[in-house]
Design brief:
By secondary structure, the protein is of the alpha+beta class. 33% of the residues lie in helices and 27% in strands. It is built from eleven helices and 20 strands. Strands 1, 2, 8, 9, 10, 11, 19 and 20 form an eight-stranded mixed β-sheet that branches. Strands 6-5-14-15-16-13-17 form a seven-stranded mixed β-sheet. The protein has a three-stranded antiparallel β-sheet with strand order 3-7-4.
Length: 410
């Protein structure tokens, strides 16, 4: 084999939450795995930073929870919102039966660095940073590896299985010719930071008003803010003077006061284009897509990271032994999709319902938002707050680690 060629039992493309978890679980089970990450580090701002109780349960099962919770994070035990001038509690995670009864807001780069550290403790784990997959290697109708550009030049990675975990703009998915079903999203999001002070709310907080939605997440010394806009309207919004935008934010949360002046220019505001889609088929011979590459999620509930991690756990549970034996079949790949497709569809159905019945009408300014009856019931009967907490925090059909740690992994 030439100097610019490598071989592995599995090549994972993408060093995000799904890819890093997949790489670690396979290496822990004794599978020879290479993970490709196109950037030099994991430092990207305004990525999904929510670590849900379901993910922390997996950390507990792996014996990693204590070390994981030593990473910087903020605990959120309830989700609170204002609909018009009515303040309501919409979910209470303290009612869950999990070891961690909260959502942890943790910078994604800390989470990914932690998973990389865990992976490097396994002999069969290789993480190649600054290595971007550019194409698939195909032989006899089967994916047999990937071509990539690394620091040292072009490289080929031959593998029995390629995992596409390279996000909602997946190049692997595109090269494989897998078609995407667009489910539609009526919104985009403008992200920004505003300083937080003592005496501010301690919970994740959302304000719904006619024509505007502002979500605020406590990150310790600052608020991570998401101003929700109608799909495709960002260019028009950002053509306005930044002072107009500051007034809009202040109108939704007047208690911020002069802090809105921290938004000096539009350089302080980042656009997130919201997508909601999925692949009708996640696989081809020699290839499987997981996470956002298989199903982009709306930011509603912040469940995207956790759904991607659940995909990785299910895939590792089903594929670890066939990979070690060099006998992965199309049936194995179909089993992964079958296992994870229903939770994906159920979650996306919930997100579409909220988009179409709540967010779309509010952004259109069609109606003055009112407190829905289910939310009123949760106010009257607090025990009901455990229902949305379970759906958001644990999800539909949570996965558990079934792969065994191989003696030769360490």
């Amino acid at each position: 084999m030439s100097a610019n060629a490598l071989a592995a039992q599995c090549c994972v493309v993408g060093g995000g939450p799904a890819g890093m978890m997949m790489g670690y679980l396979l290496a822990r089970a004794g599978v020879d795995v290479v993970v490709l990450e196109k950037h030099a580090d994991f430092l990207r701002d305004f990525r999904g930073d929510t670590i849900h109780p379901s993910t922390m349960e997996l950390m507990r099962e792996l014996g990693l929870l204590d070390a994981f919770l030593r990473l910087p994070h903020r605990k959120v035990e309830r989700l609170v919102g204002e609909i018009g001038n009515v303040r309501v509690t919409m979910a209470e995670f303290t009612r869950l039966t999990t070891a961690c009864k909260f959502i942890a807001f943790m910078p994604q780069w800390d989470f990914l660095d932690f998973m990389a550290h865990c992976g490097r403790r396994c002999r069969s784990f290789r993480l190649m940073m600054k290595t971007e997959a550019t194409d698939l290697i195909e032989e006899d109708g089967r994916v047999a590896g990937v071509r990539a550009n690394a620091e040292t030049g072009a490289v080929e990675i031959r593998a029995n299985l390629v995992i596409g975990a390279d996000g909602r703009h997946s190049k692997i998915r595109e090269r494989a010719g897998l078609k995407v079903e667009d489910l539609g999203a009526p919104m985009d999001v403008l992200w920004m930071r505003l300083s937080r002070r003592e005496g501010d709310y301690a919970e994740a907080f959302g304000h719904f008003e006619t024509g505007g939605i502002l979500i605020m997440i406590d990150r310790g010394d600052y608020w991570q803010c998401a101003y929700v806009i109608q799909k495709g309207s960002a260019e028009g919004v950002m053509r306005r003077d930044i002072a107009d935008f500051r007034r809009t934010i202040l109108g939704l949360s007047p208690w911020l006061g002069e802090r809105v002046n921290e938004l000096k220019s539009w350089d302080d505001v980042k656009l997130l284009t919201v997508a909601l889609d999925r692949l009708p088929q996640w696989y081809r011979p020699g290839l499987l897509c997981i996470g956002d590459a298989a199903h982009a999620m709306s930011p509603i509930g912040g469940v995207g990271i956790n759904l991607a991690i659940q995909d990785a756990v299910a895939a590792a549970n089903i594929l670890a032994e066939p990979l070690r034996a060099g006998a992965v079949t199309l049936d194995h790949l179909a089993r992964v999709q079958k296992r994870r497709e229903w939770p994906t569809r159920a979650t996306q159905w919930f997100q579409r319902t909220i988009q179409n019945r709540v967010i779309g009408p509010v952004l259109a300014g069609a109606t003055q938002p009112k407190v829905p009856l289910p939310v009123k019931l949760m106010d009257w009967f607090p025990a009901l707050r455990g229902i949305p907490a379970r759906f958001i925090g644990i999800g539909v059909r949570p996965e558990h680690v079934q792969t065994k740690e191989a003696a030769e992994a360490q």
